[in-house]
Amino acid sequence: MGTSTHQQGTEPPPDLAETLDDGFLSELCAGLFASIPRMDQRRRGEQYVRGLLLAEGRKSIRNIAALLGQASAEQSLHHFVSSSTWEWVPVRQALAAYVQRAVPPLAWVIRPVVTPKAGRHSVGVDRYLVPESGQVVNAQRSMSVWAVRDELSVPVGWRLHLSRAWLEDGPRRRKALIPEGWEEETAEECAVETYLDIGLERSAGPVVMHVGKADVARTVGRLRAVGVPFLLRISGAQEFRQAPHGGVPLRVAGPVGGRQLLHAFRDFRRPVAHPPHTGTTWRHVTTLPVHAPPVPAHRRRGVDGAGTLLLLGVSPADGGRSDDVWLTDMTDAPLHRLLRLTRFLDRVETDLATVSEEVGVRDFAGRSFSGWHRHVTLASVAHLVAAVSAHEAHRALPQFCH
C-alpha cells in the first residue's frame, strides 16, 4: 500500500469517528484475534480496540466502558485485559504478518519507550535516567519494534525491561504476575529479544535503532549473532579502528572517536540525493570501513564481535551542523538506500506521538505484567487502524486470510 499520505510533523489526523470504517475494523480484528479461543474474548478484543480509537480523553477501561454504554462492560473489560488467559504473542505475530503483506515495511525500528508513572506499584516501575534529557524519572521502561516505511509506521512488538529490583523482590514479583524464569536482561538483550519475539524471518528487512551512548559493541554483537542486518545511530565519541580497504588510505592508526575518524576523511564526503515526501533533499555522506568494536571477554556470550562494518557520517549539504554518526553491516548497500533508512527513526518518533499516544499506548493503569502486555498489544492494533483509516488506504489493503 503506497497510497497513504500521512506526513511527518504536519496537520493532525482527521477525527476517527468520521473516518473509521467499521467493516475494516471488524475484519481486521477477526483475523488478528483468531488465536483467542473464546468467542466472547474475541468480541471483547474488538470492543477494546474500538474504545481505544474512539473514547474521549485518557483511554482507561472506565472511559472505554462508558463509550460502550454497558453497565457490566467495565468489569468484563478489566478481566479481559488483566486477568484473562489469552496469549498476546500470537496476536502480535499475526499483526506483524498482516502488516508485512498489507503495508510491506522497508525496515524494523527498535525503540525504547519510557512511560512516566506517579507510583511504584505498576509492573516494572523504577527510577531511570533518560539519556536524552539527563533527568531521572519514575517510569516503566520497555522496548518496542515498529514496521516502517516512508509514509507510516506500526508497532508490532513490545517487551518490558525489568530491573533487578523487580526480579529479586519475590512478593512484588508474584503480585505483578511476572512469569517464573524471567531473568534480568541488558538493554541490548531486551532490544534483540523484542525483535525475535515477533517471529520474523531473518530476510524480513534490516533493523534501525538509535543506540547513542549505550553499549555499541554489545548491540552489534547481539544483532550479528542472530543474523539480523542493522543500521545504528551511535554516539560520535564511540571509538573505532579503521579497517583496510582497497583505495582508502590508512590515515589513523589507533582507535579514535567515530566523528573524529570521519572528519579525517572529509575529502571522501559526497553529496547524495534523497527524495522524501516533498521535493528532493541532499545530504553529505562520508563512509569508512571500520573494525567491529571489540566486546570484552566477560560479555561475549551469545554475541559475534568479528568482522568489518561501515561507518557513516551524514550531514546537511549546507554544512549546518556536525555529522550524525551511523554504523551498519550492510557494507554493499547503495548510499541512497542507507540514507533513506536513517529517516525512519523520525518516522517512528512522529507516529508514537501522533498516533500511538492518541490511542492510549501509555494509558494502562493496571499493575500486572500480563495486563500491560495485552493492553499494548491491543493499542498496536488500534494504531494500525488509526494510521490507515485517516485515508482511503485501507480500501486497498488485502483482506485478512484466516
Task: Provide the descriptors you would attach to this structure in a database record.
globular, ten-stranded mixed beta sheet, 2 domains, 402 residues, alpha+beta
How would you explain this protein's 3D organization?
The strands form 2 sheets. Strands 1, 2, 3, 4, 5, 6, 9, 10, 11 and 12 form a 10-stranded mixed sheet that branches. Strands 7-8 form a two-stranded antiparallel sheet. A hairpin with a 6-residue loop joins strand 9 (270-274) and strand 10 (281-291). The two termini are 20 Å apart. It folds into 2 domains: 16-206 and 348-396, no CATH class; 208-329, no CATH class. By secondary structure, the protein is an alpha+beta fold. 36% of the residues lie in helices and 20% in strands. The chain is globular and about 75 Å long. Helix 2 crosses helix 3 (39-54).
Topology readout:
Elements: H1 16-19, H2 22-32, H3 39-54, H4 61-68, H5 73-83, H6 89-102, E1 107-116, E2 126-130, E3 135-148, E4 153-160, H7 164-167, H8 170-175, H9 187-197, E5 207-212, H10 216-225, E6 230-234, E7 239-240, E8 256-257, H11 258-263, E9 270-274, E10 281-291, E11 308-316, E12 324-328, H12 335-342, H13 344-356, H14 369-389
Parallel strand pairs: 1-5, 5-6
Antiparallel strand pairs: 1-3, 2-3, 3-4, 6-12, 7-8, 9-10, 10-11, 11-12
Helix pairs in contact: 2-3, 3-4, 3-14, 4-5
